[in-house]
Design brief:
single chain, about 20% helix, six-stranded parallel β-sheet, UDP N-Acetylglucosamine Acyltransferase, domain 1, seven-stranded mixed β-sheet, 2 domains, 29 strands, alpha/beta, elongated, Spore Coat Polysaccharide Biosynthesis Protein SpsA, Chain A
């Protein structure tokens, strides 16, 4: 069985962070979301993985290489324009061949992995299996209607009056019959080849499409608040460790804190679940629960809680607590004591600042 990961999106909902990097490379609990997807596939026994890439292909290829650090073989499949999920399947046909495969959206984080799911599909004679999740707001998703025998009868995209609360999660399994579907369908009203249309084509042509209703949590990390939620959920499941070469001096570190190699925590309080990255310095500061601080970051005379701070950034001498915040790479947040005192900042497009 092969794997297909879709990583061609522009990440417009995560701007300004995604002006300068692929959204799938933003870390959750100090590990890029795309790496988590690769590890999920590897844990399910899938070693041959294709990654559909778009404008951010250089960043993704540089970060992942050939996949050997994770025990997989990666093949990059360029998508010239984001023409829909079914289009991504169509252009991947040469890579996928006649194998069954699992398709995973590269910005999804899911609890519990997919090993059981893959095993169920491998043992079945189904033509497709779709992961569904009960949600509170099904009108915001594609939803599925099931037949009495448990198979999928219909998929409806963002219905005003949802016939069910079973939303499509973004994980799909197919056999080669999916290629008949993606070549048969037409673009939707928004000009894309929709995977829901392709699956519905399979259903209408009497192929066997069954659901797997996921019982754990699942987060689409397409927006900043979702990224923070995914970070919190993953941190709660992380097994805390403290690297042997980490330096902790005159500080309070609770048992739910992970401290990576070369980090230094001095005169500070760190409460978990939290992760402090490699070569990061926390000094005279407070780091509260559900915070991920990536590598080579400096936090000095500051307070941070339920936030994500990316690599090579600095938070210095801040008089108020930073909370529910994403700070990008090589960023500096600081207070100046020079007179006259004033706020000074350089902000990118689509930035948001709260002043208290």
């Amino acid at each position: 069985m092969k794997g297909l990961i879709l990583s061609g999106g522009k990440g417009t909902r995560l701007r300004p962070l995604t002006y300068t990097q692929a959204k799938q490379l933003i870390p959750v609990a100090n590990k890029p979301v795309l790496v988590r997807v690769i590890e999920t596939m590897h844990d399910a026994g899938i070693a041959d993985i294709g990654i559909v890439v778009g404008d951010t292909h250089a960043d993704i290829e540089r970060a992942l290489g050939n996949g050997s650090p994770w025990g997989v073989n990666l093949t990059y499949i360029p998508q010239a324009s984001p023409d829909g999920l079914a289009h991504a399947v169509k252009i991947s046909q040469d890579f996928l061949g006649d194998d069954r495969f699992v398709m995973f959206l590269g910005d999804n984080v899911i609890q519990g992995g997919i090993a059981t799911l893959i095993d169920d599909f491998s043992r079945s004679e189904w033509n497709s299996q779709i992961v569904l999740k009960e949600v509170d707001n099904p009108q915001s998703y594609g939803v599925a209607v099931l037949r009495p025998d448990g198979s999928i009868e219909q998929l409806i995209e963002k219905p005003k009056n949802p016939p069910s609360n079973l939303a499509l999660v973004g994980i799909y399994m197919f056999d080669p019959h999916i290629f008949e579907a993606v070549h048969a369908i037409k673009p939707s009203a928004r000009g894309e080849y929709e995977i829901t249309d392709a699956i519905q084509w399979m259903i209408d042509h009497h192929y066997r499409v069954f659901p797997h209703v996921h019982g754990g949590w699942w987060v689409d990390t397409g927006k900043a608040l979702d990224m923070l939620e995914a970070n919190s959920l993953v941190l709660e499941e992380l097994k805390p460790t403290i690297a042997t070469d980490a330096i902790i001096e005159n500080s309070q570190i609770d048992r739910r804190v992970t401290v990576e190699s070369g980090a230094r925590i001095i005169n500070s309080v760190v409460r978990g679940p939290t992760i402090i990255g490699k070569e990061t310095v926390i000094e005279n500061s407070y780091v509260g629960p559900f915070t991920s601080i990536y590598h080579h970051v400096t936090v000095l005379n500051a307070e941070v809680e339920r936030s994500i701070i990316l690599e090579h950034s600095s938070v210095l001498n801040i008089g108020v607590r930073i909370q529910d915040t994403l700070i990008g790479r090589y960023a500096t947040v600081q207070r100046s004591d020079d007179k006259p005192r004033a706020m000074k900042m350089n902000l990118g497009d689509h930035s948001t600042v709260w002043i208290l």
